[in-house]
Amino acid sequence: MPDKKASENLKNTGYCIAALLAFAFLMFPLYWMVVTSLKNEIEIFKVPPTLIPHVLNSTSYSAQLKHGDFNMFRSFKNSFVISSCAMLISLVLALPASYGIARFRFKGKRFFILSFLVTQMLPVSVLLTPMFILFKNVHLLNNQFSAILSDATIGIPFAVLILIGYFASIPKELEDASRMDGCNRFSAFLLVFLPIASPGVIVCMVFSFLYGWGDLAYGMTFLQDQTMRPITAGIFNFMGQYGTKWSYLMAFAVVTIIPVVIIFVFMQKYIISGLTSGAVKG
User: Fold this and answer.
1) pLDDT of 137-172, one tens digit each?
2) Topology of 68-277 in CATH?
3) What's the pTM value of the predicted model, to 2 decimals?
Protein backbone atom coordinates (compact mmCIF):
# COMPACT_ATOMS: atom_id res chain seq x y z
CA MET A 1 0.00 0.00 0.00
CA PRO A 2 2.76 2.55 0.83
CA ASP A 3 4.48 1.70 -2.46
CA LYS A 4 1.24 2.26 -4.35
CA LYS A 5 0.68 5.60 -2.64
CA ALA A 6 4.27 6.69 -3.33
CA SER A 7 3.86 5.69 -6.98
CA GLU A 8 0.64 7.70 -7.18
CA ASN A 9 2.34 10.75 -5.64
CA LEU A 10 5.25 10.42 -8.05
CA LYS A 11 2.83 10.24 -10.99
CA ASN A 12 0.96 13.35 -9.79
CA THR A 13 4.25 15.19 -9.37
CA GLY A 14 5.21 14.27 -12.92
CA TYR A 15 1.87 15.55 -14.20
CA CYS A 16 2.34 18.84 -12.31
CA ILE A 17 5.84 19.32 -13.72
CA ALA A 18 4.61 18.54 -17.24
CA ALA A 19 1.72 20.99 -16.81
CA LEU A 20 4.08 23.72 -15.57
CA LEU A 21 6.43 23.18 -18.50
CA ALA A 22 3.54 23.30 -20.96
CA PHE A 23 2.24 26.47 -19.29
CA ALA A 24 5.67 28.13 -19.46
CA PHE A 25 6.05 27.12 -23.11
CA LEU A 26 2.65 28.53 -24.06
CA MET A 27 2.98 31.73 -22.03
CA PHE A 28 6.54 32.59 -23.07
CA PRO A 29 5.48 34.41 -26.29
CA LEU A 30 3.15 36.61 -24.25
CA TYR A 31 5.90 37.27 -21.71
CA TRP A 32 8.37 38.06 -24.49
CA MET A 33 5.91 40.48 -26.06
CA VAL A 34 5.51 42.40 -22.78
CA VAL A 35 9.27 42.42 -22.13
CA THR A 36 10.04 43.60 -25.67
CA SER A 37 7.57 46.46 -25.32
CA LEU A 38 9.54 47.70 -22.30
CA LYS A 39 12.95 47.61 -24.03
CA ASN A 40 14.56 50.25 -26.22
CA GLU A 41 15.43 49.41 -29.82
CA ILE A 42 19.11 48.77 -29.04
CA GLU A 43 18.41 46.26 -26.29
CA ILE A 44 15.82 44.43 -28.42
CA PHE A 45 18.54 43.36 -30.88
CA LYS A 46 21.18 42.67 -28.25
CA VAL A 47 22.92 39.28 -28.43
CA PRO A 48 22.43 37.30 -26.26
CA PRO A 49 18.88 38.58 -25.65
CA THR A 50 17.95 39.83 -22.19
CA LEU A 51 15.05 38.21 -20.38
CA ILE A 52 14.49 41.32 -18.23
CA PRO A 53 14.88 44.91 -19.54
CA HIS A 54 17.93 46.70 -18.14
CA VAL A 55 16.19 50.06 -18.52
CA LEU A 56 12.41 50.33 -18.61
CA ASN A 57 11.20 52.12 -21.72
CA SER A 58 7.73 53.61 -21.15
CA THR A 59 7.75 55.81 -24.25
CA SER A 60 6.50 52.90 -26.34
CA TYR A 61 3.22 53.02 -24.40
CA SER A 62 2.84 56.79 -24.32
CA ALA A 63 3.37 56.81 -28.10
CA GLN A 64 0.11 54.90 -28.50
CA LEU A 65 -1.79 58.04 -27.56
CA LYS A 66 -0.07 60.46 -29.92
CA HIS A 67 0.96 58.64 -33.09
CA GLY A 68 -0.05 60.72 -36.13
CA ASP A 69 -3.53 60.13 -37.50
CA PHE A 70 -3.98 56.98 -35.44
CA ASN A 71 -6.19 57.48 -32.39
CA MET A 72 -6.13 54.61 -29.90
CA PHE A 73 -9.40 55.49 -28.15
CA ARG A 74 -11.27 55.99 -31.41
CA SER A 75 -9.97 52.66 -32.71
CA PHE A 76 -11.02 50.94 -29.50
CA LYS A 77 -14.51 52.35 -30.00
CA ASN A 78 -14.58 51.18 -33.63
CA SER A 79 -13.53 47.67 -32.66
CA PHE A 80 -16.08 47.54 -29.85
CA VAL A 81 -18.91 48.66 -32.14
CA ILE A 82 -17.94 46.25 -34.92
CA SER A 83 -17.41 43.30 -32.58
CA SER A 84 -20.61 43.90 -30.57
CA CYS A 85 -22.80 44.26 -33.66
CA ALA A 86 -21.24 41.18 -35.27
CA MET A 87 -21.88 39.25 -32.05
CA LEU A 88 -25.56 40.31 -31.96
CA ILE A 89 -26.10 39.37 -35.62
CA SER A 90 -24.42 36.00 -35.05
CA LEU A 91 -26.66 35.19 -32.08
CA VAL A 92 -29.89 36.40 -33.70
CA LEU A 93 -29.30 34.20 -36.75
CA ALA A 94 -27.57 31.23 -35.08
CA LEU A 95 -30.09 30.63 -32.28
CA PRO A 96 -33.14 29.84 -34.44
CA ALA A 97 -30.99 28.07 -37.06
CA SER A 98 -29.39 25.73 -34.53
CA TYR A 99 -32.74 25.12 -32.81
CA GLY A 100 -34.38 24.18 -36.10
CA ILE A 101 -31.57 21.85 -37.12
CA ALA A 102 -31.48 20.17 -33.71
CA ARG A 103 -35.22 19.72 -33.08
CA PHE A 104 -36.72 19.11 -36.55
CA ARG A 105 -36.32 16.28 -39.04
CA PHE A 106 -36.04 17.35 -42.66
CA LYS A 107 -34.30 16.34 -45.85
CA GLY A 108 -30.82 17.74 -46.28
CA LYS A 109 -30.18 18.10 -42.54
CA ARG A 110 -26.75 16.53 -42.77
CA PHE A 111 -25.93 18.74 -45.74
CA PHE A 112 -26.76 21.88 -43.73
CA ILE A 113 -24.52 20.79 -40.86
CA LEU A 114 -21.73 19.91 -43.31
CA SER A 115 -22.08 23.30 -45.00
CA PHE A 116 -21.48 25.04 -41.66
CA LEU A 117 -18.38 22.90 -41.13
CA VAL A 118 -17.09 23.76 -44.60
CA THR A 119 -17.51 27.49 -44.06
CA GLN A 120 -15.39 27.18 -40.93
CA MET A 121 -12.55 25.74 -43.01
CA LEU A 122 -12.51 28.44 -45.70
CA PRO A 123 -9.60 30.87 -45.29
CA VAL A 124 -10.32 34.60 -45.19
CA SER A 125 -8.21 35.20 -48.31
CA VAL A 126 -10.66 33.11 -50.37
CA LEU A 127 -13.64 35.21 -49.26
CA LEU A 128 -12.10 38.68 -49.55
CA THR A 129 -12.52 39.12 -53.32
CA PRO A 130 -16.17 38.03 -53.64
CA MET A 131 -17.09 40.00 -50.53
CA PHE A 132 -15.30 43.08 -51.87
CA ILE A 133 -17.23 42.86 -55.15
CA LEU A 134 -20.51 42.33 -53.30
CA PHE A 135 -20.03 45.25 -50.92
CA LYS A 136 -18.91 47.48 -53.80
CA ASN A 137 -22.07 46.71 -55.76
CA VAL A 138 -24.33 47.48 -52.77
CA HIS A 139 -22.30 50.61 -51.86
CA LEU A 140 -21.14 49.36 -48.47
CA LEU A 141 -17.41 49.88 -48.95
CA ASN A 142 -15.89 52.22 -46.38
CA ASN A 143 -18.89 51.54 -44.16
CA GLN A 144 -18.55 49.77 -40.84
CA PHE A 145 -21.58 47.64 -41.68
CA SER A 146 -19.44 45.78 -44.23
CA ALA A 147 -16.92 44.81 -41.53
CA ILE A 148 -19.77 43.86 -39.19
CA LEU A 149 -21.37 41.54 -41.75
CA SER A 150 -18.00 40.01 -42.64
CA ASP A 151 -17.15 39.26 -39.02
CA ALA A 152 -20.63 37.84 -38.46
CA THR A 153 -19.98 35.26 -41.20
CA ILE A 154 -17.21 33.90 -38.98
CA GLY A 155 -19.27 33.77 -35.80
CA ILE A 156 -22.50 32.33 -37.22
CA PRO A 157 -21.16 28.86 -38.25
CA PHE A 158 -19.30 28.48 -34.96
CA ALA A 159 -22.37 29.45 -32.94
CA VAL A 160 -24.63 27.10 -34.90
CA LEU A 161 -22.32 24.12 -34.44
CA ILE A 162 -21.99 24.79 -30.70
CA LEU A 163 -25.70 25.34 -30.05
CA ILE A 164 -26.90 22.33 -32.05
CA GLY A 165 -25.45 20.06 -29.35
CA TYR A 166 -27.25 21.98 -26.60
CA PHE A 167 -30.67 21.97 -28.22
CA ALA A 168 -30.32 18.33 -29.26
CA SER A 169 -29.45 17.28 -25.69
CA ILE A 170 -32.70 18.66 -24.21
CA PRO A 171 -35.18 15.78 -23.63
CA LYS A 172 -38.31 15.76 -25.77
CA GLU A 173 -40.38 15.19 -22.62
CA LEU A 174 -39.42 18.66 -21.40
CA GLU A 175 -40.72 20.17 -24.62
CA ASP A 176 -43.96 18.20 -24.32
CA ALA A 177 -44.38 19.37 -20.72
CA SER A 178 -43.98 23.00 -21.77
CA ARG A 179 -46.73 22.54 -24.37
CA MET A 180 -49.03 21.05 -21.74
CA ASP A 181 -48.43 24.18 -19.67
CA GLY A 182 -49.69 26.33 -22.54
CA CYS A 183 -46.46 27.24 -24.34
CA ASN A 184 -46.34 27.31 -28.09
CA ARG A 185 -43.15 26.43 -29.92
CA PHE A 186 -41.81 29.99 -29.87
CA SER A 187 -42.53 30.63 -26.19
CA ALA A 188 -41.05 27.22 -25.33
CA PHE A 189 -37.93 28.21 -27.24
CA LEU A 190 -37.65 31.46 -25.25
CA LEU A 191 -38.67 30.21 -21.81
CA VAL A 192 -37.35 26.63 -21.78
CA PHE A 193 -34.66 26.05 -24.38
CA LEU A 194 -32.73 29.31 -24.13
CA PRO A 195 -32.25 29.21 -20.31
CA ILE A 196 -31.03 25.61 -20.53
CA ALA A 197 -28.66 26.46 -23.39
CA SER A 198 -27.41 29.65 -21.70
CA PRO A 199 -23.84 28.31 -21.17
CA GLY A 200 -23.57 27.66 -24.90
CA VAL A 201 -25.04 31.08 -25.68
CA ILE A 202 -22.40 32.73 -23.49
CA VAL A 203 -19.64 30.82 -25.29
CA CYS A 204 -21.02 31.92 -28.66
CA MET A 205 -21.20 35.52 -27.44
CA VAL A 206 -17.60 35.49 -26.27
CA PHE A 207 -16.10 33.90 -29.36
CA SER A 208 -18.23 35.89 -31.80
CA PHE A 209 -17.05 39.06 -30.09
CA LEU A 210 -13.42 37.93 -30.16
CA TYR A 211 -13.64 37.01 -33.85
CA GLY A 212 -14.63 40.59 -34.59
CA TRP A 213 -12.08 42.04 -32.19
CA GLY A 214 -9.17 40.14 -33.71
CA ASP A 215 -10.11 40.70 -37.35
CA LEU A 216 -7.56 42.51 -39.50
CA ALA A 217 -8.19 41.44 -43.11
CA TYR A 218 -11.82 42.55 -43.34
CA GLY A 219 -11.26 45.81 -41.51
CA MET A 220 -8.27 46.73 -43.68
CA THR A 221 -9.93 45.72 -46.95
CA PHE A 222 -13.42 47.15 -46.62
CA LEU A 223 -12.65 50.26 -44.53
CA GLN A 224 -10.36 52.72 -46.31
CA ASP A 225 -10.94 55.61 -43.91
CA GLN A 226 -8.45 55.48 -41.02
CA THR A 227 -11.02 56.97 -38.62
CA MET A 228 -13.36 54.01 -39.19
CA ARG A 229 -10.87 51.17 -38.92
CA PRO A 230 -10.67 48.80 -35.92
CA ILE A 231 -7.86 48.67 -33.39
CA THR A 232 -6.01 45.86 -35.19
CA ALA A 233 -5.44 48.10 -38.22
CA GLY A 234 -3.21 50.33 -36.10
CA ILE A 235 -0.41 47.76 -36.31
CA PHE A 236 0.66 49.24 -39.65
CA ASN A 237 1.36 52.62 -38.04
CA PHE A 238 4.52 51.15 -36.57
CA MET A 239 5.73 49.33 -39.70
CA GLY A 240 7.60 51.76 -41.93
CA GLN A 241 9.36 51.53 -45.27
CA TYR A 242 12.82 51.41 -43.69
CA GLY A 243 12.15 49.37 -40.59
CA THR A 244 9.77 48.39 -37.81
CA LYS A 245 9.59 50.01 -34.39
CA TRP A 246 9.43 46.77 -32.47
CA SER A 247 9.03 48.28 -29.01
CA TYR A 248 6.09 50.39 -30.22
CA LEU A 249 4.63 47.42 -32.07
CA MET A 250 4.81 45.14 -29.04
CA ALA A 251 3.33 47.83 -26.79
CA PHE A 252 0.47 48.20 -29.24
CA ALA A 253 -0.07 44.42 -29.18
CA VAL A 254 -0.14 44.41 -25.37
CA VAL A 255 -2.75 47.17 -25.28
CA THR A 256 -4.82 45.44 -27.95
CA ILE A 257 -5.06 42.09 -26.15
CA ILE A 258 -6.04 43.59 -22.78
CA PRO A 259 -9.80 43.22 -23.49
CA VAL A 260 -9.23 39.64 -24.65
CA VAL A 261 -7.36 38.76 -21.45
CA ILE A 262 -10.06 40.40 -19.30
CA ILE A 263 -12.80 38.45 -21.07
CA PHE A 264 -11.04 35.10 -20.63
CA VAL A 265 -10.17 35.79 -16.98
CA PHE A 266 -13.73 36.63 -15.96
CA MET A 267 -15.54 34.28 -18.35
CA GLN A 268 -13.33 31.19 -18.20
CA LYS A 269 -15.79 29.29 -15.99
CA TYR A 270 -18.61 29.84 -18.47
CA ILE A 271 -16.37 29.11 -21.46
CA ILE A 272 -15.22 25.75 -20.08
CA SER A 273 -18.70 24.67 -19.02
CA GLY A 274 -20.19 25.95 -22.26
CA LEU A 275 -17.79 24.02 -24.47
CA THR A 276 -18.28 20.76 -22.58
CA SER A 277 -21.92 20.73 -21.40
CA GLY A 278 -23.45 20.36 -24.82
CA ALA A 279 -20.93 17.84 -26.06
CA VAL A 280 -22.95 14.77 -24.94
CA LYS A 281 -26.48 14.28 -26.14
CA GLY A 282 -28.76 13.39 -23.26
Assistant:
1) 998 888 889 999 999 988 888 888 888 888 888 887
2) MetI-like fold (1.10.3720)
3) 0.81
